[in-house]
Backbone:
């Protein structure tokens, strides 16, 4: 099977922005070290020069596709991570959820994680604050295509909040309801507006929407 070419959205001296496919880990785990997005990006920069380095700034869930930002040096990595909420001014996702949603809204909760690594919402402030805005684009066949903006970047945030809303993301095996019409989780990080940590220029990254989002 031919290896798929790395889908690069943007590159300069400090940053590398790529489009991660669904069903690929962002970084290695104890069970899988190779075939991750990080591994592919490392090979790409290492082929250019063996002393090149690459650093992960943030990650997406394995089953979520879309935009991931890497830094080419440690200083840029720390700048972005420490000021991510200010520099990443817009983080837009598209999702197809079960059921019909006709009005936009905001979900706010505090997220905690169980010992089995399952995230859940609580009203108690001992969790991490998570804020998700959603807006319906189209709905039919008891499905709704949502545009989602996150104000915080917590683990599994969108997936948990859609479950809380009673409209889980289709194909979500962890927080869904078993419906998987697309044979993948219907969630993509499709747009990111980022203030460059060095030039302070606002960069807008967008990725192509897979057919499942275009047909809804």
Residues:
């Amino acid at each position: 099977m031919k290896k798929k070419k790395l889908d690069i959205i943007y590159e300069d001296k400090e940053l590398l922005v790529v489009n991660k496919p669904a069903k690929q880990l962002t970084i290695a785990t104890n069970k899988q070290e190779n075939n991750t997005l990080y591994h592919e990006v490392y090979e790409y920069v290492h082929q250019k020069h063996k002393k090149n380095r690459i650093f992960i700034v943030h990650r997406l869930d394995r089953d979520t596709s879309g935009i991931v930002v890497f830094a080419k040096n440690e200083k840029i990595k720390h700048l972005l991570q420490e000021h991510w909420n200010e520099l990443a001014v817009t983080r837009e996702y598209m999702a197809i959820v079960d059921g019909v949603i006709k009005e936009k809204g905001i979900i706010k909760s505090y997220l905690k994680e169980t010992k089995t690594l399952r995230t859940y919402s609580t009203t108690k402030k001992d969790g991490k604050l998570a804020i998700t805005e959603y807006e319906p684009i189209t709905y039919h066949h008891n499905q709704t295509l949502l545009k989602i903006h996150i104000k915080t970047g917590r683990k599994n945030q969108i997936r948990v909040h859609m479950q809380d809303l009673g409209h889980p993301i289709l194909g979500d095996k962890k927080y869904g309801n078993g419906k998987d019409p697309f044979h993948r989780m219907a969630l993509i990080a499709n747009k990111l507006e980022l203030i460059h940590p060095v030039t302070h220029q606002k960069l807008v990254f967008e990725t192509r929407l897979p057919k499942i989002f275009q047909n809804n």
Notes: Residues 87 and 200 are 9 Å apart (CA to CA).
